[in-house]
């Protein structure tokens, strides 16, 4: 008989603590590979309070090597605000032992709700996935963190020691650049969407809970290049807004065959799942689930 773990049971497991269990802060102090993280937490009253008061959680604890790598690539960026936001993003709501990870991604909420960094209802998410490389957490720009030591039980939750600091998701436009979606960057330029006068672009980036469908191909660029020759500014705005679904963070696991999505332009998009492939109207989804500050980005071929 095949056993399965539902979310409620997993959360229950996270709260079943033996009498000798130690606190999250004590775990940070007792593991040699967490001394750097522990020193940062001890130096901040806000960070200490966040972790001391956590309950029913999974904490992604960045190892000494992970933090050293982050600092070498990002010198002089670790402000008190960024440290706090990163800790909040590393503190997931609910218990997720590695046994609950599977090859079907799970998108789980964190404690990051600071509007300077996130604009999604219930807290910014991370993706949990079991791959051939083991239990993985995917964060901004699909940054992969692998659990080097997992399922450490403490009072109120579970700790996974990870080898890469989670990357806080950035705005959709910044993510498009970071992910090297070069054709869509050109589409934004050709269509005049980067013009500060086109306020609707920034307005969409600032609203919560958005799903973006981003065309990134030579054919899509050629189509827009031809379109701008005989298209008004209002029509170009409608084209942009037709690729945006507000009020819904549509991770791939939530997009089902036959689903209708209402766009910012007012029209509907139809989701088709066929032969293991997903289509939005006639456009094929070629990459999915780029987590961004106010939602999620999927890349389509036209």
From TrEMBL:
Keyword terms, alphabetized: Signal
One GO cellular component, as annotated: fungal-type vacuole membrane
SMART domains: FAS1
GO biological process, one term: macroautophagy
Record-linked InterPro entries: Adhesion/Biosynth-related, FAS1_dom_sf, FAS1_domain
UniProt domain FAS1: residue ranges: 21-166, 168-302
A Pfam family that the UniProt record links to this protein: Fasciclin
Protein name per the record: FAS1 domain-containing protein
Lineage: Eukaryota, Fungi, Dikarya, Ascomycota, Pezizomycotina
């Amino acid at each position: 008989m095949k056993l399965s773990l539902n979310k409620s049971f997993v959360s229950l497991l996270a709260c079943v603590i033996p009498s000798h269990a130690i606190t999250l802060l004590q775990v940070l102090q007792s593991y040699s590979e967490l001394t750097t993280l522990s020193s940062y937490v001890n130096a901040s009253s806000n960070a200490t309070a966040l972790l001391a008061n956590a309950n029913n959680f999974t904490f992604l604890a960045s190892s000494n090597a992970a933090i050293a790598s982050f600092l070498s690539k990002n010198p002089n960026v670790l402000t008190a605000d960024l440290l706090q936001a990163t800790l909040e993003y590393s503190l997931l709501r609910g218990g997720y032992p590695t046994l609950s990870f599977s090859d079907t991604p799970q998108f789980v909420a964190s404690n990051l709700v600071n509007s300077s960094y996130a604009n999604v209802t219930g807290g910014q998410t991370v993706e949990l996935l079991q791959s051939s490389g083991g239990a993985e957490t995917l964060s901004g720009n699909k940054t992969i963190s692998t659990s080097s030591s997992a399922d450490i039980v403490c009072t109120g939750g579970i700790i996974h020691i990870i080898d890469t600091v989670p990357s806080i998701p950035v705005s959709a436009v910044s993510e498009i650049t970071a992910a090297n979606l070069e054709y869509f960057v050109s589409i934004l330029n050709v269509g005049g969407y980067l013009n500060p006068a086109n306020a609707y672009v920034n307005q969409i980036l600032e609203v919560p809970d958005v799903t973006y469908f981003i065309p990134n191909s030579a054919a899509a660029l050629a189509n827009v290049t031809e379109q701008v020759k005989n298209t008004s500014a209002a029509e170009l705005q409608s084209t942009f807004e037709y690729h945006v679904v507000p009020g819904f963070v549509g991770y791939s696991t939530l997009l089902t065959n036959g689903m209708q999505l209402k766009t910012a332009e007012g029209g509907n998009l139809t989701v088709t799942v066929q032969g293991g492939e997903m289509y939005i109207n006639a456009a094929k989804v070629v990459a999915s689930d780029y987590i961004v500050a106010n939602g999620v980005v999927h890349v389509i071929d036209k």
